[in-house]
Amino acid sequence: MEEFDDASRTIFRDVILLALSGFVAPVAMMIPFISPPAKAEQETSATEPGTVIVEINWPPELDTDVNLCVKAPGDRPVGHSYKGGAWVDLPRDDLGHFNDLTEPNYRIVFGRAIVAGE
Questions:
Q1: Radius of gyration (Cα) for the chain, nearest Å?
Q2: How far is 17 from 14, CA to CA, in rounded Å?
Q3: How far apart are CA 61 and CA 96, in angstroms?
Q4: Where does the chain have alpha helices with state H?
Q5: How buried is 87 (Cβ within 10 angstroms: 0-12 exposed, 13-18 middle, 19+ buried)?
Q6: Which residues contact 50 (CB under 8 A, 6 or more apart)?
Q7: Which residue has the higher pLDDT, 60 or 4?
Q8: Is residue 111's pLDDT more than 60?
């Protein structure tokens, strides 16, 4: 085998360093733009789905449908027929044992804000 001369070693070293810098440079430029979400936002979104929570539970052995109706000021009442309003939402509408694979019976309404009113 022939040994490399000084010129070919220099070219090989330059190509390797350029390839390495081609991978490192974009990563170094992206680092300032990568930021984890704030800790306070993570805790609030994971623990509190809404500002106001209205919930009703009834025993799992009862095959009944209990209705929950919540009305925010200046909005339509939210219940079994209208599941989302401007301020409150009904994400869980339990009908007792009808089409329900879970044991507990409950309905829950989340309010996104506290609105002035009675």
A1: 30
A2: 5
A3: 9
A4: 6-30, 39-47
A5: buried
A6: 88, 89, 110, 111, 112
A7: 60
A8: yes
